[in-house]
Amino acid sequence: MPKRFFQTAHALRSPHLPVGSWIAIAAVLICAGAAGAHGQTIEISHHEMKPTRLNLFVGTTVHFLNTVAMGGGHVVVDAGGTIKSPPLAKPGDEWHYTFDEEGEFEIFIAQHPKAKARIRVVPK
Ligand SMILES: [Cu+2]
User: Fold this and answer.
1) SS3 3
2) Which of 20, 31, 33, 107 is surrounded by the fewest CB atoms within 10 Å?
3) How far, CA to CA in Å, does 48 sit from each of 10, 94, 108?
4) Domain count of the chain?
């Protein structure tokens, strides 16, 4: 089964713990609701993130979708140290991240630093 992860800029959530599963369910509801405008998907492989550029409004949730098997799992990080995904190991493993603050984020796959994307977050 692919793993599904949800995270906002301020809270790291584990869907594996009993308490965490409730939080994950709440995150799904938030994600589906008006609070989290569900934005684009970024696809992850060994050599690229696709697309490589996104322009978003503050509060947009981006869906990161792993498309290839990776021992240890792909970890999405940003140059500024704000963003860090859980390991996404299997095709179909996914992670949601909500960009709550404006700014420019240079993100890349920790194991493949050349696989990067630039995300620009602007006020609504
Ligand atoms: Cu890889």
Assistant:
1) coil
2) 33
3) 26, 16, 9
4) 1
